[in-house]
Amino acid sequence: MYFVGIDWADLHHDVAVLDEKGQELKYFTVPHKREGLEQLKQKLLSLDPEPENFACLVETKNGLLVQFLLEAGFPVYPLNPKVVDYRRKPSGAKSDPIDARLLANIGRSDLSQLKRLKPDTELISELKMLTRDQDGLIQEATRLTNKLIACLKEYYPAALEFFSKPTLPVALEFFKLYPTPDLVREATVPEIAAFLKAHKHPRPNQTAVSIWQKAHEPQLQASAPVVRAKCRLLLALVGQLELVKKQIAAYDEEITRLFQLHSDSRIFASLPGAAGRLAPRLLAEWGDDRERYENAAVVQALAGTSPVLFQSGKYRFARQRKSCVKPFRRAMHLFAFQSIKQVCWAREYYDLKRSQGKTHHEALRALANIWVRIIFAMWRSRTCYDEATFISARARHLNRAA
Question: Where is the signal peptide (predicted)?
Answer without folding.
Answer: none
